[in-house]
Structure to design on (201 residues):
């Protein structure tokens, strides 16, 4: 028998509140590193000031969040590119690579970061496990959230946010805050940002 619409709505609101509260708690968790928001605002605004391009990279669902960030950076008027896109240019000394490695290290992320560093670019690595980051000389932006590496499936019940969902959801929230702050720092108006949205839809 189907649940009444009022009960369905209440259940949805309760689950949504639990998820939002869990993601919010990520940004109050203790960390020895500067807040990831300030790190990213500083690095991206500095890259913009020196005329650098911004490259993003991640794998799996982390990669999808990075692509969402790239889109918004473009809307802000920044020259942003996803690594491996057909139109991605060469990376060089003025540029910035932002890569995500939630569990701390992926062989592909380490390799891409190495190429970027070899080309003279600055590198920022987003991660939940700073001690595991394999890219030397990278600036680390710590997102203290559960990743796939922390989920061993040993729990007795079903997690509302399983595997890497907490980290990935926190990435989305972080990037929304980042775009808001960058809009202020770079002096971008909402109309200016909206005007860069594609009309090929």
């Amino acid at each position: 028998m189907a649940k009444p619409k009022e009960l369905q709505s209440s259940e949805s609101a309760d689950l949504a509140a639990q998820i939002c509260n869990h993601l919010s708690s990520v940004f109050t968790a203790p960390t020895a590193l500067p807040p990831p928001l300030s790190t990213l605002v500083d690095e991206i605004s500095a890259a913009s000031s020196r005329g650098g391009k911004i490259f993003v990279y991640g794998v799996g669902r982390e990669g999808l969040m990075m692509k969402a960030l790239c889109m918004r950076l473009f809307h802000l008027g920044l020259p942003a590119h996803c690594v491996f896109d057909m139109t991605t240019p060469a990376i060089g000394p003025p540029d910035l690579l932002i890569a995500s490695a939630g569990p701390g290290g992926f062989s592909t992320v380490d390799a891409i970061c190495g190429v970027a560093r070899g080309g003279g670019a600055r590198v920022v690595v987003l991660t939940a496990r700073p001690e595991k980051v394999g890219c030397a000389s990278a600036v680390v932006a710590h997102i203290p959230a559960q990743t796939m590496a922390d989920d061993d499936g040993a729990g007795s019940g079903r997690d509302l946010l399983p595997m890497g969902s907490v980290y990935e959801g926190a990435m989305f929230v972080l990037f929304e805050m980042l775009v808001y702050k960058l809009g202020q720092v770079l002096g971008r108006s909402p109309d200016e940002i909206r005007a860069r949205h594609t009309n090929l839809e």
About this structure: Strands lie at 54-57, 80-82, 96-100, 122-127, 139-142. The chain has a mean pLDDT of 91. The radius of gyration is 18 Å.
